[in-house]
Amino acid sequence: MAINSDFLKEKFAYSKKYIERLRSIIVISEKIFLDDFSLQLESERIFEVLSQLMLDICTHIIAHSSETPPSTYSDCMRKLVDVGVINEEESINFIKIVKMRNLLIHQYGTIDQGMLFTALKMLETDFLQFKNSVLSWIEK
Fold it and tell me: Residue ranges of the chain with pLDDT lower than 50?
């Protein structure tokens, strides 16, 4: 069964409105962010959606490869290196996104909103790198 490149492209198209909103959040001051609970909640949701899109794409690619199924979402990102979609350095950054997503979703403790603000800035760059890497790979 082949990878459905249309599925992957649709996932990235869906991300557009989230990336646009993310960009409008990361340009504000950290103080404003830390004082605005509604903005924090919105940011958590944006982080959740974009990171889940990355994981959906990752699991789709790995499911249609000769790799064994990943045991964790972090493992899924490592397997993308083995398949040739991303490089090792990218996988390290993307695994950080997965770990932050897990903190947000599973509420392992109180979320450090300063850390979230920093992670949002990294997410914008890393998500676009992920997108570019995947789209380049499917065009090969």
Answer: none
